[in-house]
Amino acid sequence: MDNDILKVLYSQNEIKEACERLGKQIQKEYEGKTPVVIGVLKGAVFFMADIVRAADTYMQMDFIDVSSYHGGTKSSGEVELVTDITLDVAGRDVLIIEDIVDTGQTLKFLMDTFANRGANSIKVCTLLDKPAGRLVEANSDFIGFEVPNEFVVGYGLDYDEKYRNLPYIGVLKPKIYSHN
Ligand code: 5GP
Predict the structure, then answer these.
(1) For the segment 105-160, what is each residue's pLDDT rounded down to a tens digit?
(2) Measured from the CB, is residue 69 less than 6 Å from ligand 1?
(3) 73-103 burial by CB neighbour count: b if 16+ within 10 A, else e?
(4) Residue 11, SS3?
(5) In angstroms, rounded to a whole number, what is the distance separating the alpha carbons of residues 59 and 82?
(6) Please, how many CA atoms are within 13 Å of residue 102, restricted to the half-sphere of its CB?
(7) Is 78 strand, coil or helix?
(8) CA of 102 to the centre of ligand 1 (A)
């Protein structure tokens, strides 16, 4: 996989430090509460695993799967619920864990969904924020890194379902896209 990467944006060490920083912020934010922490499949799995272990606070965890990309590098704009959470969020403090916020459509869909279900509060922690891609307003409360408007892979983020297991975050060589 290493040979397919044009440049590394964030090393394993930089990601680890960001997770520890965010974990401590989350710990402080939810002291005395038990939030429902909801990871967005599949991209946020590694990030969620690392930040929850950096936050020494009670929490319940769940996962939701939504789709908007259908395997390409550009968002289709429509967000569909693929697999729902199992916990009831009514009256609960919800913390959404995202891998990346680009157009903001996925995040807006999730925030609207949990607001409609009566969540008491909704906050967002994203590993990566790509503000240049924003089409709808959707702000995160905890952000790992602000990324340039490039398609990134690794540490959960895929291209055609591959590269999720890359331990760092990088940009693919253009020839990888042209093969498809
Ligand atoms: P949005 O709805 O904000 O446009 O996109 C959110 C989702 O699109 C993310 O959860 C992620 O799955 C995908 N996405 C957006 N930008 C990128 C990117 O640069 N790389 C990868 N691999 N996925 C992205």
Answers:
(1) 999 999 999 999 999 999 999 999 999 999 999 999 999 999 999 999 999 999 99
(2) yes
(3) eebeeebeeeeebeeebeebbbbbbbbbbbb
(4) coil
(5) 24
(6) 14
(7) coil
(8) 6
